[in-house]
């Protein structure tokens, strides 16, 4: 650990793909906690596709990052100097410290973690926002019934991997779509999906390969990517299909609107497309807590982490995330995790 | 009445817009009812946009019409020769006799009408399929809350007119979109909508004119038309907007898929688009029967009929319907309605 607070600031707004020049890496003094606050060092930083939206000027669904401010993000931190009655030195918390190695907090929104219960980093993946996203979208919007076919794009990712495993636990055929043989092999052999289509290898045969993997059509399409995958999937929806619309990562860097499917396809199939953002539903996660942590503990839901070391490497890792270069939940290890020694 | 059965058959499948050459008008013998059947003369024939889909070869959501068969359609008929124990001569029924002046039925799907309760033709508009479509889409999918803004396209039509009036009855701001000043005046002055945008006059200002009519954004968009209206409305959806997707009349004649909105617009707003077809829900219309007929009787829901005389004029009227030429529910009067004398 350095004796300064290393922070990644938003320097300029990307036009299209973000580049390293959009970020500023600065060293600042380590802040002092006031009365009722604590100082924490960041252990884990989560990198997620939604951050692309926060870099934009255009109105998104949450407050965007101001130029010169640190990038926002979910973190696991360890309290190192507490002047807050609810937190003591050594406590681990899941919070939103952003892209910086130290932060001061009044505790709002911070959740204490029990390092005995699960690895700390899981609070940023399967037991945190991505896991809740998967559960909410699949169970509350997708409403899968045993015997139905669930297709999920970005299937090896933090959200998609949980979607497919939950679908299997509920008796569905789970079909992933992912980029590259390695990811597809992982999705089928490690996670237990019934099939996985490699959209990069498929090229112009994407529609046919999805059809072969989902021969009875698609009842639930969990949408993470948009673009060419969306165009190939939507015509294969079954009557009364549900489409939890979670993300459109292939379109986040696009400067212009890009066309979606002809709504005649949705009308004829009486399909439902529902955009959702998990933070709207954090207060209603009883079902998630009941179902997912025990399944993780029992090994029925597996997860994979893609770890980058050092906060100074966050920009490049994030740029890669938008291109699908990560394999598993992308995390930055900002400082030592004493529970992993 | 002629002494033969005048029938309109599907002669060929339209490529793009239907033309009179796609139809064959033939005279056939009046059929004889067998035991357990009745012969009825068609009084009213309903012309509806969905019929365009039935003319196509491509798989739609219901069985398409075979070449050489009569066009399908909802009708009000009078029994003139019954050999069915449940129907007697003189009874009026709502049935699906199609585009012909006489039909024989075994009574399946026929509903007896009480001519004292409402005009017979209302069974084909506000008290029939179009009214149920409006009610189901608005109330079950749109779920309007008092104070919200409901926008409906094809606002002067059989469905749209009921949508807006129901929205008003539920305390919403009702904004119509229709083609031409006459229709817009009717929607506002007769039906009591708060505003109506004339999409034909608006041209390139359509987005702005809709914004002016719905200054707080759009909570429910009842979609009947697609195309340019859809493109102008979707970016104005509010957070958690609901879109009952009922029809896309502007696209029915298109041979190619046409692009829909970028799904980023749905994601950011957490909007829900739900395609629906009323016939899936006929068994679940208790709420409709409770709400709509009394409102019609009390004059709180008004309706307008656009009547064409003679079944031989049905093809031209139907072609005009797809271009928005009708003004109100389009009906063909096939034979005398004794209750209207």
TrEMBL record, chains A, B:
Domain Oxidoreductase N-terminal residues, every copy: 6-112
Protein name (database record): Enoyl reductase (ER) domain-containing protein
Gene Ontology MF terms: oxidoreductase activity, acting on the CH-CH group of donors, NAD or NADP as acceptor
Region (Disordered), start-end ranges: 1-22
Key word Oxidoreductase present: yes
Matches recorded under Pfam families: ADH_N_2 (PF16884), ADH_zinc_N (PF00107)
Gene3D superfamilies: Medium-chain alcohol dehydrogenases, catalytic domain, NAD(P)-binding Rossmann-like Domain
UniProt domain Alcohol dehydrogenase-like C-terminal: residue ranges: 158-289
InterPro entries: ADH-like_C (IPR013149), ADH_N_2 (IPR041694), GroES-like_sf (IPR011032), MDR_fam (IPR045010), NAD(P)-bd_dom_sf (IPR036291)
Stretches assigned to coiled coil: none
Keyword Phosphoprotein: no
């Amino acid at each position: 650990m350095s004796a300064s607070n290393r922070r990644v600031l938003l320097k300029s707004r990307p036009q299209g793909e973000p580049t390293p020049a959009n970020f500023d890496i600065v060293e600042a003094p380590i802040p002092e906690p006031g009365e009722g606050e604590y100082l924490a060092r960041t252990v884990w930083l989560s990198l997620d596709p939604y951050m692309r939206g926060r870099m934009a000027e255009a109105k998104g669904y949450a407050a965007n990052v101001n130029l010169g401010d640190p990038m926002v993000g979910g973190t696991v931190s360890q309290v190192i100097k507490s002047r807050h009655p609810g937190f003591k030195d050594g406590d681990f918390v899941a919070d939103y410290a952003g892209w910086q190695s130290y932060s001061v907090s009044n505790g709002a929104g911070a959740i204490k973690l029990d390092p005995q219960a699960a690895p700390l980093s899981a609070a940023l993946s399967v037991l945190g926002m991505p896991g809740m996203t998967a559960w909410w979208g699949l169970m509350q919007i997708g409403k899968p019934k045993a015997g139905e076919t669930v297709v999920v794009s970005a299937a090896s990712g933090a959200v998609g991997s949980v979607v497919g495993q939950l679908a299997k636990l509920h008796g569905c055929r789970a079909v992933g779509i992912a980029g590259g043989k390695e990811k597809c092999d992982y999705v089928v052999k490690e996670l237990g999906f019934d099939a996985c289509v490699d959209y990069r290898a498929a090229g112009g045969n994407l529609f046919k390969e999805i059809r072969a993997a989902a021969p009875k059509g698609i009842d639930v399409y969990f949408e993470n990517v948009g673009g060419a995958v969306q165009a190939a999937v939507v015509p294969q929806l079954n009557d009364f299909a549900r489409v939890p619309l979670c993300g459109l990562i292939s379109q986040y860097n696009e400067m212009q609107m890009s066309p979606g499917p002809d709504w005649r396809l949705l009308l004829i199939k009486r399909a439902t497309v529902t955009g959702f953002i998990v933070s709207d539903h954090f207060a209603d996660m009883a079902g998630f807590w009941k179902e997912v942590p025990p399944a993780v503990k029992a090994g029925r839901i597996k997860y994979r982490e893609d770890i980058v070391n050092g906060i100074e490497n966050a920009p490049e890792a994030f740029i890669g995330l938008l291109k699908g270069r990560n394999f598993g939940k992308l995390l930055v290890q900002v400082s030592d995790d004493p529970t992993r020694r």
